[in-house]
Design goal:
Layout (H helix, E strand, L loop, with lengths): L2 H6 L5 H10 L3 H9 L3 E2 L16 E2 L5 E6 L8 H13 L4 E4 L6 H11 L4 E3 L1 H6 L10 H14 L3 E4 L21 H13 L4 H4 L1 H11 L2 E4 L14 H19 L4 E5 L5 H14 L5 E4 L11 H15 L3 E3 L12 H21 L7 H11 L3 H7 L3 H9 L22 H19 L1
Parallel strand pairs: 3-4, 3-10, 4-5, 5-6, 6-7, 7-8, 8-9, 9-10
Antiparallel strand pairs: 1-2
Helix pairs in contact: 2-3, 4-5, 4-14, 7-10, 12-13, 13-14, 15-16, 16-17
Amino acid sequence: MTQLESARKGQITPEMKRVAEKEKVTPEFIRDEIAAGRLIIPANIKHLKYRLDPTGIGIGVSCKLNANIGNSATTSNLDQELEKLHMAVHYGSDTVMDLSTGGDLDAIREAILQASTVPVGTVPIYGALEMVQKPEDLSWQILRDEIEKQARQGVDYFTIHAGVLKAHIPLTRNRITGIVSRGGSLLAQWCTARNQENFLYTHFDEMSEILRAYDVSYSLGDGLRPGCQADASDVAQFAELDTLGELTARAVKMGVQVMVEGPGHVPMHQVAMNVERQQKVCHGAPFYVLGPLVTDVAPAYDHITSAIGAALAGWAGASLLCYVTPAEHLSLPNTEDVRQGVIAYKIAAHASDIARGRVGARDRDDELSRARFNFDWERQFALSLDPEAAKAKHDSTLPQEGFKDAPFCSMCGPKYCAMKITQDMRSIEEDTLATVK
């Protein structure tokens, strides 16, 4: 049985127990959230035989982040992608997606699955395209075989753009950036060329049977997500979202776990509305957002523009934040881009957990603040999301080990540190009180 089917029968699986342990909640809570469709554990039965450490994604647990890796037809190789994987997991990514579009895709995917301790997602249509000359030659049979092959390999969740319907395509004509999803654009091209309905939609139940057999989770893709501020929250985006709500209900009825993907590029004042609308339309299924980017004018800094939107989305109720790196819109991310993207989104996820008042979310912040006030530099470094970067920044101006015990940094120096002045004031107050007593 899938995790969803087990939960509905009142059973607690080993994966539910592990997630409960990591989240510091009861296994019964995890089971009940899965049964309600508000939480998923992407854990392919094949990947569990490798080294997968199960992860829970849902509004009732801590906000998670995903890192996209994968090569292209022009750049990167397997060793570099494995290096990106290790970098992402080292800095705290909760899931990864292999978006490879060039080279030996099966070998790359197999290597990532065997090396990854976190859930791995893919977009199966990329593999299916390797079997045809042009997108119009795709068929349900070709993609079905690719989906089954990847499920057997151990992929934990699939991005499936089944919500892009033929009737939705004309709704994108007045957009500035049109259709920016690779999967969405390919399927729109197929529907237009064939004058037929999206085969992922028409064969959705058959596809769900394959996913159910391996307990692969759906990540229902937002193929019509907005690619700029001007296109955000338009009729095309929400027409697809309504279809995703329908598909969510169908998949859950068949015992398949579901999360739903969301935009994209969204101005700050529309982020919460987008999350709330998804939660209502998609029956509370976990929301997986890309960013969103809250402005379009910062190429090379889109890990920042998107982390702002991601923090707002997490606060509003998004469950999984897909990172954006400094390379977004410009190039294939390298290992350093991955590190910066993961750190930016670790900050966003943690900030949203604090804002949502999750039990214990602020404990690390308070402990670091006490270490800061006590000038315990080593403890500050250890509690940082990026300890190496924090230590390197401190040591860039005061590298000598003796300054690790100093009650000041190079910003204020020994005379003007406000916290040292506060400590001295408190010491005088305590001495005065002692004298009075």
